[in-house]
Amino acid sequence: MELMARPAGRAALPFLPFFAEGKVIKGFGRGSRSLGIPTANFNQNVVQSIPPAMGSGVYYGLANIDGGPVSKMVMSVGWNPHFNNQVKTMETHILRQFDADFYGSWMRVAVLGFIRTMESYPSLDELISAIHRDIAVAEKELEEPEVQELYRHPFFSAALPGMSPIQPHTDTSLRPLSNHIQNGPAISPSSSHLAHDVQKGHQ
Ligand code: ADP
Ligand code: MG
Question: What sequence ranges are listed for the domain Riboflavin kinase (predicted)?
């Protein structure tokens, strides 16, 4: 409980902080990248695991990729129109510049606070302005003293799936297994392509 992020002036939500991790998959090409706001998507197994009470809206928190540096993020939780709005999506925009896309990488997120509900904006410009305000809120809230410890939370530095320190080549029963791992290939800390190559080589 000492790690509970509860920025001053914001109602604490019982389901926060919420941690999620999984492989970054291709999203639905809603053009967020062309707005300068790329959002990394999780697969449905991860999205299904979010608490029902965590409704659609914009949240802020922390994220890292393949065990790398922990960065601030803003996340939208919404309903996917491609599936009759029956299926939730979680889209994470990490407040850090990346040199390249990281599809297939392992993303970890800690959702710490709620910013606003989803609204439809009269124009794209107003939507973009709203997102920039969200980013400003996230930047500020994530500087709060009670959040600082979470940047070093062991969740972000835990061994990546398929990358346990002693990786048996012959006895597959010793490999760490979880739902997420069963749903995606092993990811290396530096490059998912490398992990795929190594995997092929051993199987
Ligand atoms: P998609 O519809 O496939 O999700 P986006 O236009 O939303 O496409 O772009 C998301 C992708 O952009 C991510 O999966 C990731 O590989 C890449 N990306 C690069 N920089 C970032 C960032 N700062 N935050 C989130 N994703 C990023
Ligand atoms: Mg996206």
Answer: 15-143
* Ligand 1 contacts CB of residue 72 (under 6 A): no
Q: What are the start-end ranges of the H helices in 67-178?
A: 124-141, 145-148, 154-157
Tell me, in angstroms, the distance from the centre of ligand 2 to residue 92's CA: 7
Q: Count CB-CB contacts under 10 A for residue 203.
A: 7
24: Cβ below 6 Å to ligand 1?
yes
Give residue 127 CA to ligand 1 midpoint distance, Å. Answer: 18
pLDDT averaged over consecutive 10-residue blocks of the chain (203 residues)? 44 85 88 85 92 92 98 92 77 97 97 93 90 97 96 97 57 35 32 26 30
Smallest-distance ligand from the CA of 103: 1
Residue 199 falls within a domain, yes or no? Answer: no
Residue 10 in domain: no
Q: What is the CATH number of the domain that holds 37?
A: 2.40.30.30
Decide whether any atom of ligand 1 lies within 6 Å of the 6 Cβ: no
pLDDT of residue 115: 97
Q: Whose CA is nearest to atom 22 of ligand 1?
A: 94
Ligand nearest to the CA of 32: 1
Domain count across the chain: 1
Length of the chain: 203
pTM metric for this prediction: 0.78
Q: Which domain holds residue 119?
A: 18-156
Domain assignment present for residue 192? The answer is no
